[in-house]
Amino acid sequence: MSRALITGISGFVGRHLERRLAERGWQVFGFDIRAERENVFAGDLTDRAALSSAIKQSKPGAIFHLAGVIKSDSPEIFYKANLLGTLALFDAIMEADIHPNVVVASSSAVYGRTSGEKPITERMQLRPVTDYAVSKAAQETAALRYFDAFGMRVTIVRMFNLLGPGQSPDLACSAFARQIALAERSGQMEIVTGNLDARRDFVDVRDAVRAFELVAQKGKPGQVYNVCSGRAVAVRKCLSGMMSMSPRQLSARIDADRVQKNDVPVQVGSYQKLKKASGWSPKISLKQSLADLLNDWRERVKEVESK
Q: Where are the domains of the chain?
């Protein structure tokens, strides 16, 4: 049986990856800020001693590094978690003297603004425009240093915009789904949004974790792989799609305060490199992702009301 350690196992992607690996026969361990169940080690991501202990006890053949910060008002938080946390993890791996395949979760945000509709390949120059994106680009550089300098089997996965059940309302489509679910219970008719014109490459989280497993098994160390759908969809279409799934006649109102600065107008990726290496391609449709996300929020809202 293969053994895996997932940092950030309690997060959105971590929970889906844990489920995927367990179903596929892996023995799964986790590292998170809290240990709420068996086989999960507790500790801060920058605590090398805690990381080292978790690695020595779990003896993983693969490490999936998902832990990090996506949203924060403090730039320092991004660099502490995403860069310094990664350095602490890799130093702990070196200290443990084991040789796992290490898959690092990065983001398409590292590409920044791109021109035209041409799909982004992994060879494109990185031009991050937010502190989060810069911290992820720095994380990648730090991680690949351990491949170049020490021969550590490191691969990078650049995830494009994820969708699926369990997603945080900090992200646009999940925020829409939450508002729709609440409106259905309260009778509210208006959904408040930010910029709806941005076009994004959406991929279901369940397809993404399938890619993670394949990269751990078939990816080439030292390489970077995009995980995406290969097509750009307007955020407006996602909202209208979920609104059409509701029995209520809802309307949308743009709130200027929710429009993000430095927003990238359009982004679409190419997954051909990953497909060539592993055979991966997305299987879950955007419509299905949105339906599952909305139904998940309906259940979450119902649970809160019943307490």
A: 3-163+202-227, 172-199+232-266+283-306
- CA dihedral 11→16→18→24, nearest 10 degrees, is -170
Q: Which CATH architecture has domain 172-199+232-266+283-306?
A: Alpha-Beta Complex (3.90)
- Cα separation, 227 vs 49, in Å, equals 32
Residue 119 CA: distances (Å) to CA of 109, 124, 134, 215, 231: 14, 10, 21, 21, 8
What is the arithmetic mean of pLDDT over 272-293? 98
Instruction: Report CA torsion sign: 26, 205, 102, 40.
Output: negative
pLDDT digits (tens, 9 = 90+) for 178-205: 999 999 988 888 898 888 888 999 999 9
3-163+202-227: CATH number = 3.40.50.720
pTM score, whole prediction: 0.94
DSSP structural state of residue 79:
I
Q: Average pLDDT of 19-48?
A: 94
**Helices H, strands E: what count in the chain?**
10, 13
Q: Which amino acid is at 100?
A: P
**What is d(CA 162, CA 105) in angstroms, rounded to the nearest whole number?**
12
